[in-house]
Every structure is written in C-alpha cells, then in structure tokens.
Amino acid sequence: MTHYDPYDFANRRHIGPTVAEIGAMLEICGAESLDALVDETLPPDIRQTAPLAFGKPLTERRAIEAMRATADKNRLLVSLIGQGYHGTTMPPAIQRNIFENPAWYTAYSPYQPEISQGRLEALLNFQTLVCDLTGLDVANASLLDEATAAAEAMGMANRVAASKQDAFFVDRDCLPQTIAVLRTRAAPLGWRIVVGDPFTDLNPAAVFGALFQYPGVNGAIRDVSAPIAALHAAGAVAAVAADPLALTLLKPPGEMGADIAIGSMQRYGVPMGFGGPHAAYMATRDAHKRALPGRIVGVSVDAHGNRAYRLALQTREQHIRREKATSNICTSQVLLAVIASMYAVYHGPMGLKAIAQRVHRDAVRLAAGLTDLGFRVEPEHFFDTITVAVGPFQGVILKSAVENGVNLRKVGEDRIGITVDERTRPDILQAVWRAFGGHDLPYDEAWPEQRLPEGQLRTSPYLTHPIFHMNRAESEMTRYMRRLADRDLALDRAMIPLGSCTMKLNATAEMLPISWPEFSEIHPHVPADQAAGYHELIGDLSEKLCAITGYDAISMQPNSGAQGEYAGLLAIRRYHLARGEGHRTVCLIPSSAHGTNPASAQMCGMSVVVVGADQNGNVDVEDFRRKAEMHGEKLAACMITYPSTHGVFEARVREICAITHFHGGQVYLDGANLNALVGLARPGDIGADVSHLNLHKTFCIPHGGGGPGMGPIGVKAHLIPFLPSDPRSGEEGAVSGSAYGSASILPISWSYCLMMGGRGLAQATRVAILNANYIAARLADAYPILYAGERGRVAHECIVDLRPFQKSAGITVDDVAKRLIDSGFHPPTMSWPVAGTLMIEPTESETKGEIDRFCDAMLAIREEIRAIEEGRADRANNPLKNAPHTVQDLVGAWERPYSRQAGCFPAGSFRTDKYWPPVNRVDNAYGDRNLVCSCPPPESYEAAAE
C-alpha cells in the first residue's frame, strides 16, 4: 500500500518541495539533512526543546467542517447598533471577481509600479471617490480604520497648524472608539484631549486642532462652518469624520472649511466582520499634501511617455524618513479600498444616492412609527441614526429587540440608539416597532419623506468622471475588473521573493470561511453570546500563538505590524510609568531596523538612539553595550529583529537581551521574521518581553495588494496589564477601533494552524530556511551573498550584493529588478536594509521548479552584465537598461543592438503564458514634479481600452 497521503496539507499542499527535491537541494547546499542544515543555521542556545503539541493536523475537509461548527456558534441577528459599523451588501460581481480572487488578494504593496498598474488604477479611483465626496483636493489610499485615521488626522493637524498649543478638541458626538484611540495617541506625545460641544465648549485659541463627527454618533447633523472658521482665525486645523454614504446627500466637509476629512469606507460594500478589516480614508487640502500619512497614488509616465500610475511622494513615508516620517503606517487596507472603489464604480453616483435616500427614508419611517407609539425621538434632523428616550424601559426594550432578531444600541441609562442601513427591510422596521411595544404598523402617507436640514443638503456634483458611469452592465464591470487584474503580478502567477515580506501560500481552504455570513456579518458590539464562535476561535488561536512564541498573553487588536510595534512600545511605556519610571524614554534601535521601528518609537514619545552594525551585518554588541550604559537610567527599550534584517541568526541575541534588562529596559523583538523561528525557537525564551506577529506574513493572511494585515502582540506576564484596552470605553489604552482588530480574517490563521499541526509548522520553518540557503548556494558563484552566519548559512532570506556592477557595468539594483519582470517575477526587496542590494525570501511554499526558474533568471542577468563588462553589450542600450519590455516593444519598431528574443524572452520567462507588464519603466521623478492624484481625463481611458 502506498505511503502517499493526499490529505497531508503541510507536506502535500503548503510546503513546495517534495521529499526527493529536498534531498537534491540539500546536496547543492552541502548539508547532510534538513536537521543538519538547521543545526548549522540556528545558534544552539536559542533552540526550543519541546515540539509544538497541537494535536493531529486536520485535512482541508475536516478543517472546513471545524470552521463551520465554530461559525455556527455565532448568532446572526440584524444589528442596528451603528457606531461606525453598518450592514452593507457586497455586489456578487465584486465578491467573486475581487474579494475571492487570488489575482487581487495575493498581490503585494504596489512598490513596483510596472507590475501593479491594475490595483493602482483601482486605488486612484478610490482617491477620486474620496476627494469628490469630501470636497477636498488630495486623498490617500488608505488607512487602517476610522479611529486610527482620526489619530493620524490629529498628528497631521499638529504638524501643519500655526497654533503651538498642546490641546486637541474632540466633538463629544464622535464615536467612543475614536475618542479612546485619540486619547491613547495623545498621551505619550504630551497632548491634552478636550471633549465637549463644539458650539459651547470649544476655545479655538487653546487648541492646535479639532475633530467633528458628521453626522454625530447619536444622529445629529450640524453645520460646523462657524467653529471651523473660528479655528482658522486662531491658527488651528479642523478635521471632520464624515460618513461617506451620507455625503452623497449632505454638504461635504470641504465646503464647510474643513482642512482634513477622515472616515470609514466600510459601508461601501465591505462586511462588518466583527470589527474589520475595513479601509479608512483621509483627504486634505493641496497645501497639506506633503503632511498626509499613508500611500498616495499619482499619475506619471513611463519611459515612452505613456500614462502610468505609481506611489507618489514616498519620501514622506516611514521606510525612508524613519523617526521623522509623517506616520509609522506601512500595511494599510488596499484590498478593502479596492472593494469600496469598485462599489462606487458598480453603483455610480445615481446608485449611491438612491441607496442613501432609501436608508434615510427608512430611518424617517422608523422614527415616525416610534413617535406614533408615543416615544420621543431625537434629533430633529438626521440621516440614518436616531436616539429614542425610553426612560426605565431600556432593558426591557433591548431584550425584546433581541427576541425579535434585532440588536439595538444602549445609550446612557434611559435611551436607545438605532441606525438603519442599506440592508434594512420593512420587516426589520416592524420588528423594531414590536420591540417598543407596538404591533405591525402600516406605512402612514402622512409621515415625512425627509428629515435632513435644508441648509446642509448637497448641491455640488460628485463622481462625474466616466469611470463611475461606464460599467453599469455587469458584463462591462466584470471585464473591467479582469483587465485591471491582468495588469498585475500576484502570487497566482509567480513567486514573489520579497525579503522580510514572507509571501507564502494563502490556501483556498483557509480563505473560504471569511466569506461566510456567520463570520462576515457580525457587528463588533454584539453581546458576547452572539459571538461565541469568534471568542472560541480567538481563544484557541491565542493559545497556539502563545505556545509558538513563548509569551503569556496575546492581544489581537493591532491592525498591522506597525500598529503592533506601537501597541508593544505603549505597553512598555505604561509598564515603566506604573513603576514610577516615566523618565525611561530612550529606545535603542539597530541601524538596519525596519523603518516602522523608529517611527513607532517616536509616536510613543521615545527618543531613538541608533546602534551600529558590525562588518558581518550583526548588531554591534559593544556599541549596544556602550549606549545602554550611556543612557542607563533613561533606557526604556531596545527594538531588535530576529533573525536580523540582514537575514542572519545573530549568535549574541541573548546577550543583547541581558544587557537591556540589566539596565532596566525591556526587549521588543520585531516579529517580521518569525517565519524562520516557528517550531524551532521562541522569542519569549530568548529574552524578549514583547513582539508583534505578522499574521499576514507568517500565518498566511494574504497581503491583499497592501492590506489587510494583522499585527497582534504577545507579551510576558508582567506586561499583561498594559495590553490594549477595549475601545468601546472611550478611555485611553485602545490602539484600534475594535477590540479584536480585523477579526474576520483570523479564521485564515486559525485554519492554517489546524491543518499544519505543530510538526507541520516546524517543517515549514525548516524548508523556508532550506529554500533560502538553496538560492544562496546557486547564486553564490555569480553574486556576492552579503551576510551569513558563523557557519556560512543564511536564515530564511539572503541578500545579493549588486553594488560592484554599478562600477563595472553601470548597472543598478533598479535595472536588475526591472529585468526580473521580463522573466515574469516580482523583484525582491530593493536597497534594504543595504542600498544597492536585493533581499530574497522564497518562503517554504515555493517549489524547487519555481525557485530554479528564479535562479536561472538571476544567472542569465549576470551573464548580461558580464557582456556589458566585456564590451560585448552597450552600457546604455541593453536589455537591463531598457527593462521591462512590453508587448508594444515586441511588435513595434525595434532599434536596439540586441534581438527581440533576447529582450522579451529571457531565461525563466514563459512562452505561451508570459506575463507582459502593461507599461515600461515608470518615471518616478516626473510623477512627483507633476502630482496628479485623481482619475486622469476621460480620453485616456478610451485609449487604454483599445
């Protein structure tokens, strides 16, 4: 009987190389076995002794059944709770062709514009949508959620305001989770949060900025033009948190004078998902565009002058400016922003307005019926939210509502809040009326049709660009989404060997449950008994993550790795404060650290002291010791990445932790490279006190073209009291708008753990190390491998040094990266952590065949460089300098000293299924000099469609 097990998910589906291929790769690496290779790679003093005991791994079918059983424990009621989360309908065309399409959800952030033109166009549509709705000039794409967007707006206001006050005013009608996150962000920076009524409590001369909610959390629609004008007169900045659906009917923030607008695009077709993920937006005036956090898509040209999209003004971002960046944000919510933009493209302006009118009409009818029942309904003017005075009957009515299948919102001790949405049906209104003691009410023709304030009605046009009108028919909509997808290179086409990014398999079995309504349609504020499945899932996944990391508790709240860094450093800060050591504000960070590290430290009020690296790329331990001693009593923390950002397991990591602890500091171990540790070593055993875990790297949540991500943090026991708090309280301590962050994508990571089992997870780590060492071995004779451990091994990634070729052949890292596109690959990480290098991380999911194809392409590029060095190829006109080549190059005039074959079909490229980039090399400088961040003129779309 055969020993082949077709249902062994770890070895037959997730891990790429077969047993025979692993043997052949080990031979190339010069290792006797996989265990021997690991022994030569990891320092022996960090190895964990006990294997991960997760029980027998589940097959895909059994895992799906387990997920179904868990999902069924969630009770799916109609939630009219509001507070920033709304029922919405994702059009099936978008669900099938984007949300469930690996061409969209497995892509990486669009830092390589030539292979990202599809999602860049979708994001440009998003920016255009936001600018039109808000009446402002420039928007980003995108932010993590509305609460953190508000915190970013506060930080931006502080940067651009003429006022030098240290207080920020917050409208008491703002969402409670927003107020909580604002308090958290302000505290370490020494800013005061003042909450009150903007018409009676705001002193413009005493603040650097203010945030208004529009409409308010309890439904009020107020014209804040006068408070905004007063703020401007005092040199302060005004921000408005606005509902994007309401803005189709209401005067936009820009017309009221707002400098910044923020909000959530969740109700544009993105399910509530027990809190996320959702894309937030931010827009501002042109004068402030360089202070805008996050990514901005701009229009540029390629090498032939054709229109091309790219990320603009990147010098603002953390990967370049580090502690001086406008924000620490890296991963955002690209996939969700794309869905929101497509929702607008699908419905068009008339459709969006019709949805908003129907929502408002239902709210008006609901209010009228409750008034007829004898209840006092507030406010006078509203869009979708009302507040009902119920006196001592609050508990009875809330319970009755649940019995009628509806969740309502408790407001104080004697009121109930209700928010309707696009999914509200007549029978739902009847259920609410029954909860309030009424019987089925007929619609009364005398009921008003509108309760919007006349002076706040929108008169300005929006979404006038043809892209929001030309896809009414689903046939055209489907083709449009397909055209955009075909322009991009994602994991469904080829390996994405980005160092420090861990672009591994996102298995379909892991992805299926996130579409189930039992997971996707749960409001984050439902009673605990309605989310029993979620709590079971989160509890078990947390236990597994603790076992993997050696930590004592996990918080799922951070929505990205950068947010995890921020949350972890805040825990350290609060720990020191609780011990009466608030003077500890110095953070030691290696020069090779991720750019988010220093940016996050700065956001926590810490001073960054940079530690150098030795000639082997390791943290210079003696420099570290000197600086720890120098700052002694002020040392708060160190931030290290392990294995290091140079792709090496540093042998003295325990010593670094011990030095930090000796001087009273805490150790933050960045979990970006955890894929090289799982099952083999645990951060909590090495000496770390806190880490974030990139679930969108190590634990298989897809990158989504730049988000969603999740960065939960694990901590040792002494830091548990300082984990993020529940944002619903409105008090300091929360870092995201919902208690469990982007909870609806946690089933992906849980399924991964269930199907891999403890042994499978450890085997995945071993093979990730093997694949990286195999690449290093195959390329070592052609390229310098920059760093290795004491026994000549790399960790899960390796750095190829291209700097010598700048002098010998005039070839840059850009040239090599773009030439890899011709072979059908996403380029590795460029010029980080060392300028002029490529950092390559294949992950365990890539097969030997795909890795060999990549190595063949790299070796062929080396021969092309050699031809330049030897004078056989022109230094300025060669396949590398002209890369990437497009199909237009192939069929057009060819005035180049090399053949079409050599230019367009290099080693590694496919013939029949070749990926053709839609544009040639993009001119980055042109795009920043001529900044355009919204949809280009209509005629350009006609040309693109031809």
From TrEMBL:
Any one GO cellular component localisation term in the record: cytosol
User: Where N6-(pyridoxal phosphate)lysine occurs, residue numbers?
Assistant: K697
- Which residues belong to any copy of the Glycine dehydrogenase C-terminal domain? 764-885
InterPro entries registered for this protein in UniProt? GcvP, GDC-P_C, GDC-P_N, GDC_P, PyrdxlP-dep_Trfase, PyrdxlP-dep_Trfase_major, PyrdxlP-dep_Trfase_small
Q: What keywords is this UniProt entry annotated with?
A: Oxidoreductase, Pyridoxal phosphate
By its UniProt entry, which Pfam families does this protein fall under?
A: GcvP2_C, GDC-P
Q: Glycine cleavage system P-protein N-terminal domain: from which residue to which, for each copy?
A: 12-436, 472-720
Q: What class of enzyme is it?
A: oxidoreductase
The keyword Oxidoreductase is annotated on this UniProt entry: yes
Gene Ontology MF term list: glycine binding; glycine dehydrogenase (decarboxylating) activity; pyridoxal phosphate binding
A Gene Ontology biological process noted in the UniProt record is:
glycine decarboxylation via glycine cleavage system
Q: Which cofactor does it need?
A: pyridoxal 5'-phosphate
| EC numbers for this chain | 1.4.4.2
Q: Which domain of life is it from?
A: Bacteria
Outline the subunit composition. Answer: The glycine cleavage system is composed of four proteins: P, T, L and H.
HAMAP family membership: GcvP
Q: Which family does it belong to?
A: Belongs to the GcvP family.
Function, as annotated, reads: The glycine cleavage system catalyzes the degradation of glycine. The P protein binds the alpha-amino group of glycine through its pyridoxal phosphate cofactor; CO(2) is released and the remaining methylamine moiety is then transferred to the lipoamide cofactor of the H protein.
NCBIfam families in the record:
gcvP (TIGR00461)
User: Can you name this protein?
Assistant: Glycine dehydrogenase (decarboxylating)
Which organism is this entry from? Answer: Methylobacterium gregans
- In the UniProt record, what gene is named as encoding this protein? gcvP
